[in-house]
Amino acid sequence: QELRPKSLDIKQEELGDMVEKEMASTSEAIEDAVRRIEEMMSQARNESSGVKLEVNERILNSCTDLMKAIRLLVTTSTNLQKEIVESGRGAATTQEFYAKNSRWTEGLISASKAVGWGATQLVESADRVVLHTGKYEELIVCSHEIAASTAQLVAASKVKAEKSSRNLARLQECSRNVNEMAANVVASTKSGQEQIEEKDTMDFSGMSLIKLKKEEMETQVKVLELEKRLEGERVRLGELRKQHYVLAGGCEDTPEDGEARPAPAPRRGILKKPPIAQKP
């Protein structure tokens, strides 16, 4: 008992209550997240239109699907924990089981908190993106965090679960579903960002004749610069290929001017003197 780390400032007998409270708190956070997303969806339809509305709806729909997947994950995780406690506590009470397995219990609490926190952060990031005050990258990072915390929760539950447990199989399936939905959020966010940036770049409405002419000249300058850079890269690619042939042994002779030429394939039974290199 003395060697056990004092990582939590609570009594061992209070761990069981804390697990239940934390899981309930996580469920409430997810329900609140779903409600907030629905409110954001309604607000987006009233305040935006066209491409921006399409992008916002796609992102918010993917966030809603992710929240539903997380909600199912938490429910399944709660059922698995009850199964673990019932099968492992024997004659002991639920509180005694959690106290006896305090390290495992603390890991479970930490994982549950991480899932709830990730869901809350995702909704806040989505809210800022819809209001055009946040960055699309925030949504991507939050999605990755949710996937990581989900893996943490599954790992914590798997430690004590029976391999043949149906609840464990369901939890692992829920985890895969969460990862898939998180990937969908990332994909919809990236495509939406590209769509918005492309629209902003190509929107010339409201420009005066002088402004349009200036933009046209600046674009011509960029085109010439890119063409020159492309030509330089082509020359570089050619030189790299020549050097590749030399190092690979594809050349017999290298002329004085440094240009490598592939050696002709020799005929069988005939020893032919290699041709004299000619300057171009």
Please, could you describe this protein's structure?
By secondary structure, the protein is mainly alpha-helical. The protein has a domain at 14-197: I/LWEQ domain. Helix content is 74%, strand content 0%. It is built from seven helices and no strands. Helix 1 runs antiparallel to helix 2. The radius of gyration is 31 Å and the shape is elongated. This is HIP1R protein.
Largest beta-sheet details: none
Quick check: average pLDDT? 79
In the predicted model, the low-confidence regions spanning at least 5 consecutive residues are 254-258, 266-271
Please identify, by name, the CATH architecture of the domain at 14-197.
Up-down Bundle
Number of strands: 0
CATH topology of the domain at 14-197: I/LWEQ domain
Helix content: over 70%
Question: In sequence order, what are the helices and strands, one letter per element?
Answer: HHHHHHH
For the record, the CATH class of the domain at 14-197 is: Mainly Alpha
Report how far the terminal alpha carbons are from each other: 87 Å
The number of distinct helices, counting runs of at least 4 residues, comes to: 7
Report the CATH superfamily of the domain at 14-197.
I/LWEQ domain
Radius of gyration: 31 Å
Please state the structural category: mainly alpha
Tell me, briefly, the overall form: elongated
* Beta-strand residue fraction: under 5%
